[in-house]
Design a protein that fits this description.
elongated, 58% helix, 20 strands, eight-stranded mixed barrel, 26 helices, alpha/beta
Amino acid sequence: MFSVLSSIAVEHEYRFIGFAAIVCVVGSFLTMSLFSRIRSCAGSRRYLWLLLAGLVGGSTIWTTHFAAMLGYFVPFGRTFEPASTLLSLAVAIGSTSFSFFVASRSDNRLMIGFGGLLFGLGSAAMHYIGMSAYLVPGFIRWDTSFVVASVVVGGLFGAATTLVLAEYGKRTGLWGATAMMVLCIVTLHFTGMAAMTIVPLSGIDVPPQAVSDDVMLAAVVGMTMVIIVVVGSAFLIDQRSMEEAATTYRHLALHDPMTGMPNRSFLKKRIEEDLEVVGGGPNRLAVVSVDLDRFKDINDLHGQMAGDKLLQRISERLQAAVAEDEFIARNDGDEFVAVKRITDDDRQAMEFASRIRHQLDAPFHWNGDTISIASSTGISLAPRDGRDAHDLIARAGMAAYHAKMNGGDRVVLYETTMEKTSRIRASIAMDLKSAIANRELELYYQPQNDTRTRRLKGFEALVRWNHPKKGLIPPSDFIPVAEETGLILDIGAWVLETACRTAANWPGEFTVAVNVSARQLAQETLPHQVAGVLARTGLLPGRLEIELTESGLIADQEHALKIVQALKDLGVSVAMDDFGTGYSSLSTLQSFPFDKIKIDREFVRSLTSNQQATAIVKSTLLLGSSLNIPVLAEGVETEDQLSFLEAEGCQSVQGFLFGRPLRLEQCEELIREEMQGRLSIPLAFATKAGVR
């Protein structure tokens, strides 16, 4: 140890050591930042960061070594042999890149530490190759014990470098890993220098050095700092873009893109917070559901754009009506929910609900028409009607439904006798049990198209129920019941089998997407079920895409990740459906290896008329591009929407612009038209699809 400290204190010029220290610390910090980014990225993007980390890390190690060597005192002439010097630089960059590749491929501590060990050993190799380029009028004698010690400390600190970053996360781990990398470089170099003794010999000449030490130091340090600054700038720009996207999502995930109001997720969060305050004393929590009457008629009469504008103006009035201690959100469609803490069970709640409802008394105007809106309003009270956010919202909605069934435009308090909706659902559940056996279910297929060429790429399979008495029932009416009763498992299995059997008869370039429910995902047997279906139907795994919603992933992320990975091991693609509607979409994307992101139709629908919708779509496309994950936009209905998506780099779309969901015979006819169009006139189908 004394020999090492003596080498630093006595045998080196401090000016050169100072420059070496600056490069070492700055370069190590940037290298560890880049290594952290490698571990959090996937796909080709990971290899880009790996290349930059290897370049910066290798240059940092080599420059620190070279600058320190320039400052090493010798009482005679010396020079550096160019070929070995450049070889040592190549070894530094190559070994750093390879060691980071090994350390970033797994979360196993042994592999992470092994990658760090390779980093330290690669640094040692660079050091001694670089020392072989050190030409003096004599020979160099090496102390084996110090040589071994330098390699050992380099390997140990190298392993500590990667392990500290992986173990302690981005903030603490980054600074700790930087310190370990600096120690790896410094201890290795100066221990190695302590191992060296120069024995001068007369009659031996070395070539004169072409430029002075100062010029060489300025060139080497300057070149490395340029690399650090350029790569560091790229890193900061990318980091800033990701942070802006994250900030945008954190806001938009809790707000409705059309109206800017708090959404259902925010509503549940607020009610849960208020329920913690409401106890057994006089405090109560009023949950008020405001359901617009005959809103569908307005949409049908004046058009969807009028309906959207009307919702925006309604939201403006409602938000202006609530006080600081009150809260209002858009729950779903034309339903708004307001929340207020009160001290009286009924009177205050009724006054609050009436004040909210009366904001709709004044008529609205649209293109010269006067539109009057009435609402059915229901109230549930906590703790009397429940202490669960979901139950309180549902019971307020049930009271609003009761008000609507009794003429509308009134306020009704929830009563336990209001179970008509539950009975209707029970009736659906009874009929649904026999729907599969009686062959009442049918698959429709919605086209998915290439955004740029408009060519058909595949279909999403959508289930419909042909009820013998009630006619065609949309999935929005029976799928929630199927989820609640567990019948979704049988329905999901039938959908998967039928869709794959059908798609196996299509031309090989067309894919089929199948939705998998949260209950299906929760089953351990799902991958085996998918493998069996593929084997029976003969459909190639690469032509099947499984769509998952975030609600099915976050309940048990560890289990869900295992199932998703097993599906991908089969060769099946996995897509995240309805992206942007969940609070933790970003963390879900980071945790799961998705092959595609599907933007929810609600954002696309408001794309050209709402800044928030535009922001979330742009952020999704930026995020998909950054993570190298293709993006598909749902609900494309207009050419303006398509043009926007194409300009922003969205690869695929689906929606009424290209066709409504088709029955099997219509689907097969569309495929025949597509194939004929490709054989005759390129892109002929695109023109037809645009007006379909």
